[in-house]
DNA sequence: AGGAGTTTGTGAACGGGAGAACAAAACGAG
DNA sequence: CTCGTTTTGTTCTCCCGTTCACAAACTCCT
């Protein structure tokens, strides 16, 4: 019987943290369709996970359900949002406004999920005349002042791979402590800085591996 | 002593499969910089993983190193590429040529890693006049014939979330067995079809969670 | 040829996550 | 108030993945 600190039941497993946003999305969907209460079974189906896993995940946050009834959609949604930290708005800077940077800047889904793009930066002076998604593309040299003025702690790297490490170094020096990296490179950053990478080529290669094996052995597998 | 089938040492752990593309990228980098031989330590550092893990991963493919020496960069690169299946070219279709679809279509990294975009499809007739990255944007109705004519088995979904499931259903019916999904929805597909999802909002939310906790407890953590 | 030095490949210990199963709690009917 | 039904929260077990540590294998030097 661990005396559970009721206010801050800390250290949520990483695997659970990665699923909380999925639950949040599912709950938002349920709320929009008018559902006010749902069981772990329903929510699990909507989120595409096992219901036991869902319940265990939620138990790390606290006891927000009612036995025999289920969960209040709106209440649980708020609790998860609070736990993740998306009840507040997070300012974000995007560096590298090329093909991908444009798409990211124009994406409305970030805003609706608690993130606000405060600046678009690019090293190429030709880009600086452009206005993307209502924001001026500014010089990369402005990074430090923008980070300081807007209390930015999250940065997105969408530059070519060769530039990524130097951009990351500069971000870290400017005070950014979380980086989402789209460039296909391993970034090295000091302790205390989180890096997550998104590599589309790797995803395709994983699919190709399984695809190749389907041709010989029909052992099918669904990776979600 | 499991009699290791030398030609097909099958069932590589999923976690290893996900890292093989990283090793491949690291090896390509080493090869380009003129390195012909490397130790597991060097390669692990380049790929950003533990060297013991790297060696164990490679051991699933076979014994391609030489004790006391290391690995032949070019030889190992080929072996990994063959194992993943990227020695051949994989035809790919992209559905939903909006912000993200444009970026994907223009991305040269796919081509250089064994993937060839054979068609860009969109439901919006206004898009059909467009030429992106040297390809006509074609009607979604052409899906079946394109898949059949080009033996496409991999599809990319970059449509809004509401359309994603119906696009996936249509892809599966047309014969596609691997899907990379960018829409923030859970797709349900029959057994035998692989789905991988890329959700940028989830990545940001995971960063936000850790960021939020940094403010209170300085227990830093690097997630790569 | 033999020994010293390197580096691989793998056995074994460890930790974390997934899922089954169940006891505890809430609710409603009678 | 009591019993039956529903559903949560949690315990327990199993499996996968990570990491350590070391014997086996190879090279080079003397
Ligand atoms: N486009 C895609 O769909 C896609 C897919 C997967 C991965 N990626 C990766 O994302 C990254 C960006 O891709 P892209 O297609 O947008 O490339 P891009 O060449 O279109 O854009 C890169 C932008 O970064 C800017 N830049 C270069 N060096 C910079 C620096 N030091 N500081 C600031 N800005 C700098 C360039 O001026 C350019 O505008 C690449 O690393 C690419 O490998 C892209
Ligand atoms: N843009 C981004 O950076 C970004 C980031 C994260 C996630 N996403 C997700 O990626 C998806 C695409 O984003 P986007 O910004 O490119 O959206 P978008 O609206 O710019 O483009 C969507 C395209 O899909 C087409 N489409 C709609 N229904 C279709 C159907 N049934 N069949 C074929 N085509 C159809 C539309 O005509 C449009 O061209 C969305 O689900 C979005 O949530 C985008």
Enter the CATH topology name of the largest domain in chain A: Rossmann fold
Number of separate strands of chain A: 10
Head-to-tail CA distance between termini of chain A: 35 Å
Radius of gyration of chain A: 21 Å
At CATH level 2, the architecture of the largest domain in chain A is 3-Layer(aba) Sandwich
N-to-C SSE series of chain A?
Answer: HEHHEEHEHEEEHEHEEH
Task: Round the mean pLDDT of chain A to the nearest integer and report it.
Answer: 92
Percentage of residues in DSSP E strands of chain A: 15-25%
The spatial strand order of the largest sheet of chain A comes to: 6-7-5-4-8-9-10
Major β-sheet profile of chain A: 7 strands, mixed
| Oligomeric grouping of the chains | homodimer
Low-confidence stretches of chain A: 1-9, 219-224
Bound molecules: nicotinamide-adenine-dinucleotide
What general form of chain A does the structure show?
globular
Which chains share the greatest interface? A-B, 75 and 75 residues
CATH superfamily of the largest domain in chain A: NAD(P)-binding Rossmann-like Domain
Helix and strand composition category of chain A: alpha/beta
